[in-house]
Amino acid sequence: MTRIRDLLIAWRIRRARQLNNSDSVWFEAFCNEAPAPRYPATKESSLTNEYKVSPKNTKAEEYVRFSAETSNSSKCTRPSLATILLLILLSAVFLILPIIYLLHCFGVVNVDHDLAQHTHAHHSVKDKEHYAPSSKVHQELEYSQPDHYTLHEKRPSDNLLPPPKPDYKQCKLLKDDEKLDCYPEDGANLSGCEARGCCWVPRKIKSRNRKRLNVPLDVPYCFYPPNYETYKYFNITETAYGLTAFLRRNYKSAYPADIDIIKMTVKYESENRLHIKITDPSHSRFEPPYPEVPIVDKAASNLSYRLELNQDNTGFKVVRKADNTSIFDSYNLGNMIFSDQFLQISAKLPSHNIYGLGEHRSHLMLSTSWQRFTMFNHDGIPKENTNLYGSHPFYLSLEPSGNSHGVFFLNSNAMDVILQPAPIISFRSIGGIFDFYFFLGPTPGEVVSQYAEIIGKPFMPPYWSLGFHLCRFGYKTLNETRKVMQRTIDAGIPLDTQWNDLDYMNNSNDFTYDRKNFRGLPAFIKELHNKGMHYIPLIDPGVSASEQSGSYPPYDKGIEMDIFVKNSTGQPFVGKVWNRASTVWPDFTDPHTVDYWILMLRSMHKMFQFDGAWIDMNEPSNFLSGSFSGCPKSSLEDPPYLPVVEGGHLNYKTMCMTAQHFAGLHYNVHNLYGIAEAIVTSFALAEIRGKRPVVISRSTFPGLGHYAGHWSGDVYSKWIDMKYSVPQLLSFSMFGVPLMGADICGFNGNTTVTLCNRWMQLGAFYPFSRNHNTDDGIDQDPVALGPQVVASSKKALAVRYSLLPYLYTLFWAAHVQGETVARPLFFEYTSDVKTHSIDDQFLWGAAIMITPVLEENSTSVSPYFPAGVWYDYYTKSVIESKGDTLNISAPLDTIPVFIRGGYIIPQQSSLPTTTQSRLSKIQLLAASDASEQGCGQLYWDDGDSLNSIEERKYTLLQFTLKSGELRSEPVWWGPENPPNLGSVTVLGVKTPVSGVTINQIAQAFRYDTIHKYLLIDNLNISLKSPVVISWK
Fold first, then answer.
1. Closest Cα partner for 185 from 641, 828, 763, 572?
2. CA 551 – CA 621 distance, rounded (Å)
3. How far is it, in rounded angstroms, from Cα 125 to Cα 160?
4. Active site residue 23
5. Residue 979 DSSP class
6. 3-class secondary structure, 962
7. DSSP assignment string, 755-775
8. What's the DSSP call for residue 221?
9. What is the pLDDT of residue 45?
């Protein structure tokens, strides 16, 4: 399995031999984040494909894994007789005698005697460098095993007995909310249910015998009885990193090829992070190569959690030490299954306040009323209760105490996640392993930061990418593109980046452009660059496979380099997307594809100098379900359990599951295709341009935000779609993808003036702000919809552009510390239960609250103001809230925006482009809290270079406010510096001001006696040295 770094290092090694090195850019350079040290260790799910390299048979010298010593080679001399005798004596004392003692005491090395009476919690790690499973474990595993893993091979589990019939007296003990579905497939009946050892208690309602996709989730008829016999521990051993346990299954499950013996590896990775991995110790199973998670080989100390295991109980429990809250409790739920193509585990949760589990269209707080979340990346118009473009098996939960925790299930196979009212969560995957990370927070922001430590912190976008973007599928010519762009500029609407959908391509083929309809494209892009603007084209992964031989290098070169995804016979897999007749797909998990993709993008960049990449259709999407001849009959195409995917088949509108990638079968890597493309594309752009890359991807997976941003796909031009874009934005913030937004005014269908008017206002506050729509809809750029939309767009975007220094600083904090950019109110007010379900207003960072108008014909909103001091952004008037919902006027041209007291916001003038606005002077907006205090930061670099942070080519300023004084101090003053300070506004100055000094020099000022704010303007002060502004 290829890891990210291996893939790109392999590319570098080949490139050093084959290509000119003069303009190379290192992978570490484009990441904008110094990589953590990596160990040359493989993933620890299983040691190899053959059990002969188990700990039992491994030489001792291969197991010095945790030693702090290093060895030095030296010449050896022949040992003397005395030395030999001494070694024999030492061996007898320190090796043979302890072994005899252990055999005498235990017979085998087994679970501590205390385990039978006591819960196994974290103890101090013993002084040993590795664990050695007992001989009992080896006896259990010593079956004849084939050299390679195949589906449904003869396994020890084939000898398992079926479960006993259920005890219906026990069945009656369960409450409806706690019943776990024992027959999640269609067709459940009494005999089939009892054959699984489960309880059959149908409810007195109409039959559920309907089409599978229409079966509603509810209390299951067939459910597991209490204390159902499943896996039991039979060996637990402490290790330097935590513990290792082995479990054995008692009875056969309903799914083929149960794994009889499984291994649990527990790592106490940090004070607030626990890692639990459950694998097949006898066979290697698929594990996602992305994201590249850190490998930890030593247990942390001062843990905020404890892990509870008990040999008499099934499952495990993760407990927060501070208040004994069980955050994940799978004790005795009895439904754990680990078979070849079906993995299932459930756990009781401490709270109904659950967020995440994307990508889905839903409210921010998820319902626990029998909800199902299917994860399998799919190209479809967003709607409720279906799998969408991305898969994010991560959730964040607010506990009753106000603490927060997060859980990440690292698995790339198709899955269903079920929430039921107990509350209980159930994970059902059709492959891979159980690989769980638990994050103890305790604040929501800390949970997300801890998650980002695992999946990779968000990339640092170039400054210009935070401006406004304009696009449409349907600009049929360059002249039309230019016309729409120019009327936007002429209307005074800020604009930074012009985009083109696939219209610019020749015959919809990648790495080309239509030299007739888009004649002059290279010169057009140069004009944009001269104006300080940028250009981004669409780049689909699919490559045309039907062009005349020798006429289309992307196909010819791909065949020559052998980098396309293969079908089950080893030939290039052929499907159909936008290309004229047929399509093949690069395999982005193959290291050779890095060469290929750079070569193709470089050849395109030589034709026209684009500045970023929009990678679409990378779920991967296919207009066919499989190939032209369908897909081979296989349990990969029709697994024993089918998650409730759109279309009812895994290969619906995508590749066959039997297609082959360098990293494995498409069955396993389907959800990874988009992130793999994003990784290679981001690297290629940095290599070609030598500047910070920006990539926007439709398909997503955990870790995508480390390389790219995301937009929400082909949403409708409807009010409900606009409304749902807010919780989706906030969810992706939690997923570590802060550069995100929806197509402003909607993509599918025709927008309206009233809808686009309000959507342009909301879209001005998407971190990724782009207006884009389909080719069969009306024009929806602001000018096309009339003066009202133009006025709203100008006003809202003027606020955005003035706040860009603050927004850019938020992205710096996300990149360095894993913080969120757009965030829900409950992130800042966890103890205020009224904020927990709010998803129609949101924050930028901690300091700015946006309240969009989401209802047609409304000219007011009723936002909730958490307790504290707030200020209207436009009027500077103060709102002192005790936790109030207030009616706020929202005229047609205005989106209400509020500043939170206690924060200092860096700003600049709003100008037509970010290139121009960055040259204007810095403005400080200081909002006093009830104590007349506040703080803030400004991060500044050149906005486009690689490694600005690592090479310390930036400036970081700290601002503090107290009664009568505002201070600016440089934390770091590097070679890239912000403009001078031009003005200061202090809100919440309660008493009239009689005098102002700056660094003890008198300064002119104005004081607004009505709105109680102080304005000091017409300044030109360098921020290189401390600046102290005082008033009295």
1. 641
2. 25
3. 36
4. no
5. P
6. strand
7. HHHHHHHHHTTSSSEEE---T
8. S
9. 33
Question: CA-to-CA distance for 780 and 764, rounded, in angstroms?
Answer: 15
Tokens of 858: 């409304």
Banded model confidence at residue 311, pLDDT cuts 50, 70, 90? confident
pLDDT of 944 reads: 98
CA 422 to chain CA mean position, Å: 27
The dihedral sign for the CA sequence 289, 293, 298, 299: negative
Q: What is the pLDDT of residue 134?
A: 45
Contacts of 795 (CB under 8 A, 6+ apart): 761, 893, 894
Quickly tell me which residue has 């069945």 as its tokens: 171
What pLDDT score was predicted for residue 313?
82
Secondary structure of residue 158 in the 3-state scheme: helix
Q: Pick the catalytic residue: 446, 619, 637, 941?
A: 619
605: DSSP letter: H
Mean per-residue pLDDT, 855-873:
98
DSSP per-residue codes, 885-908: E--EE--TT---EEEETTEEEEE-
**pLDDT tier at 205, thresholds 50, 70, 90:** low
Nearest to 703 by CA among 453, 462, 950, 463: 453
Q: What is the pLDDT of residues 583-629, one digit of tens each?
A: 999 999 999 999 999 999 999 999 999 999 999 999 999 999 999 99
C-beta atoms surrounding 885 within 10 Å = 11
pTM of the model: 0.88
pLDDT given at position 90: 63
Give the sign of the dihedral formed by CA 552, CA 556, CA 561, CA 564: positive
439 or 41, which is more confident: 439
Query: Which of 616, 714, 743, 781 is the catalytic position?
Result: 616
Rounded CA separation 543/557 (Å): 11
Strands 965-973 and 1027-1031, sheet pairing: antiparallel
| Non-local CB neighbours of 63 within 8 Å, separated by 6+ positions | 55, 129, 130
The answer to whether 763 and 385 have CB atoms below 8 angstroms apart is no
- pLDDT tens across 959-972, in order? 999 999 999 999 99
Q: In angstroms, how far apart are the furthest CA atoms of the chain?
A: 101
The two three-digit tokens of residue 901, written as one number? 């007291």
Q: Return d(Cα 292, Cα 891) in angstroms, integer.
A: 48
| Bridge partners for 961 per DSSP | 934, 966
Q: Closest Cα to residue 294, out of 43, 614, 604?
A: 43
Question: In angstroms, rounded to a whole number, what is the distance separating the alpha carbons of residues 221 and 215?
Answer: 13
DSSP of 463-492: GGGGSEEE--TT--SHHHHHHHHHHHHHTT
Torsion of CA 672, 678, 683, 687, to 10 degrees: 140
Contact 998, 1029 (CB under 8 A): yes
Cβ atoms within 10 Å, residue 272: 22
The closest alpha carbon to 249, from 224, 275, 280, belongs to 280
For residues 492-511, average pLDDT: 98
Beta carbons of 989 and 996 less than 8 angstroms apart: no
| 3-state SS class at 590 | coil
| Residue 514 CB neighbours (<10 A) | 18
Q: Which of 348, 356, 370 is nearest to 406 (CA)?
A: 356
Instruction: Count CB atoms within 10 A of the CB of residue 162.
Output: 12
Residue 951 bears catalytic tag: no
∠472-475-480 over CA atoms, to 5°? 125
For residues 109 and 134, the answer to whether their CB atoms sit within 8 Å is: yes
Confidence category of residue 17, pLDDT binned at 50, 70, 90: very low
User: Burial, 15: exposed, middle or buried (Cβ in 10 Å; 0-12, 13-18, 19+)?
Assistant: middle
